[in-house]
Amino acid sequence: NLYLVLFQLQYKYQINIDGTVAAYRLPYLLAGSGVVLKQESHYYEHFYHQMEPMVHYIPFKQDLSDLIKKLEWAKNHDAEAQRISKNAQQLALDHLLPKEVFCYHVVLFQEYAKRLTKPPKIVQGMEHVPQPKNKPLCSCPSTTEKVERDEL
């Protein structure tokens, strides 16, 4: 619920914990004014390779065993925590606005199309959606950089 996420953004410390997948609210938290404490996780989203621990967020162990210690660190190092928060806000502005997310999906589907082994099958009820002509193709170098993980 977006309202709940916006309500929570008023807090100085934002804790991001995964569920059965990566927590979808992380981009909202990064864009907020609080510092994000992010759980270490094997889940990831397309932008995680652009984030650095202690630069864009404060990491804590997956089992939460050091979460209180990390919160205390943030409280005792307010200037550093605010710097991390500002870095996270800038990352969100540079890479997580709708245009950048759209560009990521354009690149994703282009790469997916290259991997198809046979043409898609058109079945009854499908509708052809013509593509606009004379419009520039999406170019987004930040989303086409080589990353360590294969996200396709």
UniProtKB/TrEMBL annotation:
Main location: endoplasmic reticulum
Annotated compartments: Endoplasmic reticulum lumen
Organism domain of life: Eukaryota
UniProt xrefs under Pfam families: Glyco_transf_90
InterPro entries on file: CAP10, O-Glucosyltr/Glycosyltrsf_90
Coiled-coil residue spans: none
Domain Glycosyl transferase CAP10: residue ranges: 1-119
Job of this protein: Protein O-glucosyltransferase. Catalyzes the reaction that attaches glucose through an O-glycosidic linkage to a conserved serine residue found in the consensus sequence C-X-S-X-[PA]-C in epidermal growth factor-like repeats. Regulates Notch signaling by glucosylating Notch in the ER, glucosylation is required for the correct folding and cleavage of Notch.
Protein name (database record): KDEL motif-containing protein 1-like
Species the sequence originates in: Limulus polyphemus
Gene expressing this chain: LOC111083493
